[in-house]
């Protein structure tokens, strides 16, 4: 269907589903175990109500803000998600092109299907990126990647360290699709490089399981021994960029991140409350619950680090609710991929157009002219805090 006939993110997902391969669908759609957390991610927003105010001149509403000190035109960003070229040859560079009108930051996955250099090569001037790291058991490989990222300081403004996936999860849709590593790797432009890594791993005596789903294939080589004490000092030695910790799911860890940030200025600058789109630990909490916990037990976290959230965003109202509860920015993972699947870079553009318009409508309906006005006074959380 023509993109302008698609009116919301569900319709874009449905359109993408008819156009991408079954294997791609299984990888993108899948989440761990019974998909409870994936469903709850969105349901949690539906159970938070808005408290609109009237008699406010809302002729215009601005969505401008800053992320890590950089001006951006929208609080919406692209979460790191692997293998965009499975959906469309435009790949991660197509996502960059698709969001270029909206001034959003793009976080590039460690397992992107294009190299970090290729992704930024044709990006619009001023387009900002972050690079996401899965620390490898062979640290030298991670260090080499960090060195490559450091060579593009105009583009890559942060390193996002993902912490919520220390081991692969059970994504049954993905495993059922049973993609062979060879096929996945061939579909990516980074094929050669990936191939080399596989060869090296073989030489090192490690054996990838060629019958696992894409998730498990990509996970191969990822370290499970990260700690506050060892990993952050190591990372600091290998990057000067602000560090963003992704996958914080409790107020305790948010507190520890904020404490670390205060004790080591210029290291951890933001945390992302995320459960990996329900793809890691099933029945782990939606980001918005963690936001509420932080508000209750350690609100000082919001002063020490920027708090970003992702997971389950389908509507502008979801985004505004997260911002009202203290989030500085809100990410979409699958939505960008579905946009790509529905129509390449133009599908991403359409996805962001819809979300941007919905954010503005919501702000105006609520009587908020500026993001800085958003706060808990606009929110009723009785339905999620019943007990
Ligand atoms: C992801 N996500 C992810 N996160 C990460 O840190 N590194 C990665 O490589 C990936 N890869 C990835 C692939 C696919 C197909 C998906 C759907 C997700 C998680 C992602 O960054 C984000 O946390 C979630 O996608 C947010 O949830 P929604 O927006 O998909 O509901």
From TrEMBL:
Localisation per UniProt entry: Mitochondrion intermembrane space
Region entry Disordered, spans: 188-215
Required cofactor names: heme b; FMN
Residue ranges occupied by any FMN hydroxy acid dehydrogenase domain in the UniProt entry: 1-384
Biased composition (Basic and acidic residues): 198-209
Family the entry assigns: In the C-terminal section; belongs to the FMN-dependent alpha-hydroxy acid dehydrogenase family. In the N-terminal section; belongs to the cytochrome b5 family.
Keyword line: Flavoprotein, FMN, Heme, Iron, Metal-binding, Mitochondrion, Oxidoreductase
Record note on quaternary structure: Homotetramer.
Molecular-function annotations in GO: heme binding; L-lactate dehydrogenase (cytochrome) activity; metal ion binding
Species in which this protein is naturally found: Parachaetomium inaequale
Enzyme Commission no: 1.1.2.3
Catalytic activity annotation: (S)-lactate + 2 Fe(III)-[cytochrome c] = 2 Fe(II)-[cytochrome c] + pyruvate + 2 H(+)
The protein's name: L-lactate dehydrogenase (cytochrome)
Recorded GO CC terms: mitochondrial intermembrane space
Part of the whole protein covered: 106 to 492 of 513
EC class: oxidoreductase
């Amino acid at each position: 269907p023509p993109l302008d006939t698609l009116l919301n993110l569900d319709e874009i997902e449905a359109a993408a589903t008819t156009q991408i391969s079954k294997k791609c669908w299984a990888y993108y759609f899948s989440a761990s175990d019974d998909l409870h957390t994936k469903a709850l991610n969105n349901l949690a927003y539906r159970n938070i109500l808005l408290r609109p105010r009237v008699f406010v001149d809302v002729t215009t509403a601005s969505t401008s803000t800053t992320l890590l000190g950089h001006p951006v035109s929208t609080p919406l960003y692209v979460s790191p998600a692997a293998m965009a070229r499975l959906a469309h040859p435009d790949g991660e560079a197509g996502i960059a092109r698709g969001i270029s009108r909206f001034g959003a930051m793009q976080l590039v996955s460690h397992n992107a299907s294009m190299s970090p250099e290729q992704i930024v090569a044709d990006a619009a001037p001023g387009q900002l990126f972050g690079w996401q790291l899965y620390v490898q058991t062979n640290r030298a490989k991670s260090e080499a990647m960090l060195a490559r990222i450091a060579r593009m300081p105009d583009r890559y403004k942060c390193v996002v360290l993902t912490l919520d996936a220390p081991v692969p999860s059970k994504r049954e849709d993905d495993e059922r699709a049973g993609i062979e590593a060879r096929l996945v790797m061939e579909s990516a432009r980074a094929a050669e490089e990936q191939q080399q890594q596989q060869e090296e791993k073989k030489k090192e005596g490690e054996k990838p399981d060629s019958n696992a789903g894409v998730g498990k294939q990509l996970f191969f080589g990822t370290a499970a021994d990260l700690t506050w004490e060892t990993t952050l000092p190591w990372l600091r030695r290998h990057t000067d960029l602000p560090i963003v910790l992704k996958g914080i799911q409790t107020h305790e860890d948010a507190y520890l991140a904020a404490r670390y940030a205060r004790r080591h200025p210029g290291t951890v600058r933001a945390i992302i409350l995320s459960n990996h789109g329900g793809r890691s630990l099933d029945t782990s909490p939606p980001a918005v619950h963690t936001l509420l916990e932080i508000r209750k037990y350690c609100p000082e976290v919001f002063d020490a680090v920027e708090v970003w959230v992702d997971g389950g965003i389908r509507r502008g109202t979801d985004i505004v609710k997260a911002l009202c509860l203290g989030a500085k920015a809100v990410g979409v993972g699958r939505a960008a991929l579905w946009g790509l699947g529905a129509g390449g870079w133009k599908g991403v553009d359409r996805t962001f157009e819809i979300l941007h318009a919905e954010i503005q409508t919501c702000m105006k309906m609520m009587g908020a002219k500026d993001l800085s006005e958003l706060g808990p006074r606009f929110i009723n959380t009785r339905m999620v805090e019943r007990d």
